[in-house]
Amino acid sequence: MTNWVIDLDGVMWRGSRAIPGSTEAVAELIERGDRVVFCTNNSAEAGTQKAARLVEDGLPEGVEVVTSADAVAGLVRPGEVALCLGGPGLRRALRDAGAEVHAAAEELPLDPHGAPVPIDVVVVGLARDADYTQIDRAAATVRRGARLLASNADATYPGTDRLYPGCGAILAAVETAAGTSAEVAGKPHEPMAEVLRRRLDGHGVVIGDRADTDGRLAQLLNWPFALVLSGVTTADDLPVDVPTAVVAEDLRTVVDTHADWSGRSPDAAPEG
Question: Can you tell me whether residue 6 is helix, strand or coil?
Answer without folding.
Answer: strand
